[in-house]
Design a protein that fits this description.
It is a single chain. The protein is an alpha/beta fold. It has two domains: 173 residues, 3-Layer(aba) Sandwich (Rossmann fold), CATH 3.40.50; 211 residues, CoaB-like (Rossmann fold), CATH 3.40.50. 35% of the residues lie in helices and 23% in strands. It is built from 14 helices and 19 strands. An eight-stranded mixed beta sheet has the order 12-11-8-13-16-17-18-19, with helices on both faces. A five-stranded parallel beta sheet has the order 2-1-3-4-5, sandwiched between helices. A hairpin with a 2-residue loop joins strand 9 and strand 10. Helix 4 packs across helix 6, helix 5 crosses helix 8 and helix 10 crosses helix 14. The longest helix has 16 residues. It is elongated and about 80 Å long. Bound molecules: cytidine-5'-triphosphate. The site of cytidine-5'-triphosphate (CTP) has 14 residues, from helix 12 and strand 16.
Length: 395
């Protein structure tokens, strides 16, 4: 990806955009307008990306190393952050008077992602409104601007550049293939809670992150996503229909309600296998000595789906997760067969850099035809690799 930095105070946030993109595995080059270089230096981006940034259209050395047309051909996505009012005007006009505009003029606008940043009155001015409208019509995508406090503290309104994580998310969305366009899918995420009494429950440390990444990746690929999620600290992704549930029983009911027409069901939720035989209506008081808690099984939702769609022509692709601490693949393969699934994602939850609460994951995906693949990376990258496999099975 090409990151084009414009000359606004928000340019300091673009350093963080570069850092996050590098961390997510992007191959990144940076170009700065002359005005941008008055806010941040090319050296900052060189240190963050390990590559010299382009700063001068007329620098013979730079043109030799990475000519602006070669840069335009190379970039899968060109992110403009901050996209200042002046830069938007020049992009609309087709200027090519610095390395950023000259490069972007050779990139199709459908590959532009603009992150506007300016004072709220500049954003609302008729000239900017028209420039943005025309750029959108040509296919450019926008992220933000956000509403909030401006650099001039006395001003608030729309015009703040979106925060770096939001820009990175928009970049991922811009890069995703649209191979699930219109496909209804169901994703579950997070833990369930099984009440003992009004203030206590049985649960597990699932953060919901893996399921949310799956929902986000499917959304970016154009799917119609229904996300059924247990209680989580992390917010679910925007742009999906999210149904909140608490217990395994509620999850079962929410799935039954949403199942009709779904082409794939991905059960990333860590559903409790047991619940207390009785949930006390009032807070239970402690007793002397040992206490025994009687547990009963919750419905095995996924096994139920596997049985229901045993041989049906309209069977959705069923994907399970196997959270294991030992004999990971062996146990996962057993679950794949027993629950009659298409794919199972085996997850070693005892490892430190994977599993519960972590931002990254390392999994093995097994399919019903004996296929096996090892996947690792950010949860979003792993999610995309899982959808690649679901898409293949949908065909
Ligand atoms: N699952 C489910 N309903 C349950 C329990 C689990 O639908 N009551 C789903 C999970 O969402 C997951 C898969 O089944 O996709 C496997 O979950 P896991 O907890 O690893 O396996 P279990 O079948 O519960 O087996 P065990 O606890 O014995 O390992």
């Amino acid at each position: 990806m090409l990151l084009c930095v414009g000359g606004g105070i928000a340019a300091y946030k673009s350093c963080e955009v570069a850092r996050l993109c590098g961390k997510a595995g992007a191959e990144l080059r940076v170009a700065l307008t002359p005005a941008a270089q008055r806010f941040v230096t090319a050296l900052t981006f060189q240190a963050l990306t390990g590559r010299a940034a382009s700063t001068d259209l007329f620098d013979a050395q730079q043109e030799l190393a990475a000519g602006h047309i070669a840069l335009a051909d190379w970039a899968e996505v060109a992110v403009v952050a901050p996209a200042t009012a002046d830069l938007l005007a020049r992009l609309r006009a087709g200027s090519a008077d610095d390395v950023v505009t000259a490069t972007l003029l050779a990139v199709d606008p459908s590959r532009w992602l603009l992150a506007p940043a300016m004072n709220e009155r500049m954003w609302g001015s008729p000239a900017t409104v028209e420039n943005v409208r025309v750029l959108r019509e040509r296919g450019a995508r926008l992220v933000g601007p956000a509403t909030g406090e401006m650099a001039e503290r006395s001003h608030t309104g729309p015009g703040r550049m979106s925060e770096p994580p939001e820009i990175v998310e928009a970049i991922a969305a811009a890069l995703a293939p649209r191979d699930l366009a219109g496909v209804p899918v169901l994703v579950t995420a997070g833990p369930t809670r099984e009440a003992l009494d009004p203030v206590r429950f049985l649960s597990n440390p699932s953060s919901g992150r893996m399921g949310f990444a799956l929902a986000e990746a499917a959304r970016d690929r154009g799917a119609q996503v229904t996300l059924i999620a247990g209680p989580t600290e992390v917010a679910p992704p925007a742009g999906v229909r999210c149904v909140r549930i608490v217990s395994a029983q509620e999850m079962q009911e929410a799935i039954d309600d949403a199942l009709d027409g779904a082409r794939a069901v991905v059960m990333a939720a860590a559903v409790s296998d047991q619940r207390p035989a009785q949930a006390a209506p009032q807070k239970v008081k402690k007793k002397e000595g040992e206490e025994v808690l009687r547990l009963v099984r919750t419905p095995d939702i996924l096994a139920g789906l596997g049985a229901r769609y045993a041989a049906g022509a309209r069977r959705p692709v069923l994907v399970g997760f196997a959270a294991e601490t030992e004999k990971v693949e062996e146990h996962a393969r057993e679950k794949l067969e027993k629950k009659n699934l298409d794919l199972i994602v085996a997850n070693d939850v005892s490892a430190r850099d994977t599993g519960f609460g972590s931002g990254t994951n390392r999994v093995v995906v097994l399919d019903r035809d004996g296929g096996r693949a090892e996947l690792s990376g950010s949860k979003l990258a792993v999610a995309h690799a899982i959808w690649d496999r679901v898409r293949d099975r949908l065909r």
